[in-house]
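Troubleshooting entry. Yesterday's outputs looked truncated, so today I'm pasting the complete records for two proteins to confirm everything comes through intact. If either block looks cut off, that's the bug. Protein one:
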Amino acid sequence: MSAEFADEPPLHPETIAAQALGHIDRETGGVVPPLQPSTTFAREGDYRPIRPGNIYARDDAPTVRDAEAIIAALEHGKEARLFASGMAAIATLLRAGAGAPIAMQKGIYYGSQLFAARALAGHGVEIRWFEGGDLASLAEVLADGAVRLVFAETPSNPWLTVVDIAEAARLSHAHGAKLAVDSTAATPIYTTPLTLGADYVVHSATKALNGHSDLLAGVIVTADPSDPLWEAICRERHDAGAVLGAFEAWLLIRGMRTLGVRVRAATANASAIAGYLSGHRNVEIVRYPGLAAHPGHAIARKQMTGGFGSLLSFDVTGGAEAALAVAGRLRRIVRATSLGGVETLIEHRQSVEDPMSGMPGGLLRLSVGIEHVDDLIDDLDGALAPLA
């Protein structure tokens, strides 16, 4: 990576992403970071690596390092590590912290809950659950000082619960624990948890960081590379080999270059759609932190700078049958899993989660893209109207 910006004032995340951290390929003059697909790297006659640090791609892939450096800069972190998926990143973090009880927020991404319940609790790791919107419950699970890792997600998926990161960090640190925050829905355009006191930030880079629904990736960023937990995370990634390939890292860099404009356009659409839905006679509740009626709105305004993201959920009047009928009538919004892409996606969460999750039948999750907002609202209006 270029050191051109080293002595400059801190850059906005849009500039860091669009300019790929100022990278110019000095070999060719190319303004696009190159793709280096090699899995192994040659040595000199005396067995020194030809390029220090390049030995084997599991830890030493140059293109992966370039992508990690960009994400670390976006999050104001010191180091980042990319993984083969968002769940690979989360699983690595939780396994690395599993030597003591782990505090987990309720109602977060279903895959995170499943991993905690099956792979950790199922093998003897104590999981202590707390409410993200009520940090008194976090204080309770931390009270005996046994917890060493707190895992939160804000805004959460699909409940859009907002966690006060600064207060969660204060409570965690007061009881000797580290705080990790899944910030996938917020993106570094709107929230940088490390600047609010968190120790780790996690993303499913599959989502908004890449933004094009064409690769799987996950990332963990740290504020302190000397932390024993970070060292354990790095060892776990090396030993388990859940790494990202060079081509996927190159695609991720390419996707991140439009991060700012994509996220802001999708957020403007989501805000307008949330307002439309909250006044609809066939919608019971809309969950979006940008709405003044949202219980976490005040906290979101404090820690989400400039916007509230592109994810929302809403409950259709009439339960599961009505919600599925609404989703089935949509013509432009795509019925599919995932979020953070340029296209708008809708998902009936009860259909894809285990009944144990207690997901309401009427809930539809909407990941808003960058289409013209009038087309999206027209599509929703046509799908909701027959319920009257």
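Protein two, checking that the full record survives here as well:
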Amino acid sequence: MTKISILGCGWLGLPLAKALLKKGIAINGSTTSENKLPILKEAGINSFLVNVESEGISESIESFLAESEILIVDIPPKLRASQSSLAQSEMTFVNKIKNLIPFIEKSAVKSVLFVSSTSVYGDDNGFITEETNPNPETESGKQLLLAENLLLENLNFTTTILRFGGLIGEDRHPVKFLAGKENIENPDAPVNLIHQNDCIGIIEAILSQSKWKEIFNAVAPYHPTRAEYYTQKAAQKNLPLPKFSLQQSNIKKVISSEKIESILDYKFRLEDY
């Protein structure tokens, strides 16, 4: 496989880069923090300081994309919850992607993997598949969907969209924030989570099988209720048990992973959950 550029070597991008390096793939990796450059270099990543802003992009973007035929975009929208409308937020994240696209077009990149979120579906109830019409309610969800479409509609490269559920890992778990709290809402709402290990495994499967022009929902096929799951996790981690509201939830959303399991022949590591 040719060189891969990973835009955003953060919580997911850095361990992903390390996993791909072990497969003998050369990696260009970006960070917005100068202090992080030595960490990337030590891992064997060709490191670049790249700032993608709504006003423009740092000059290093061309070097970062050089000689790569695949670009993985893993930069979070980082939009405040108070930004309730696209007009208020001035399309910040969408403009970042708009600024990025001309540089992709001028580069050797043939395929883009865009890390998105199941937040594009909003809180619609029922069984959600890739065929479900997105209906984002949050500002980040709205801008992610617009960014997805910008990339999918571009004919200069092929794009695959990967919509992750709630991200968890050894160093990242929502139970830490819920432990000991009381009257937590939506006790019977199903969880829709994805572990860092599966995030990496699914991306590796997409790359190795060249599954482009696709949309995948990436959520583990494990959907206990919030009350069941977080109470169990708190007990396992010796944390104060969360106390949930007795009022039942209207949210019954279950994100399907059937497409990933069938198209990619991917097996989730359910022991991580």
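Both blocks look complete. Sanity check on protein two: The longest strand covers residues 111-117.
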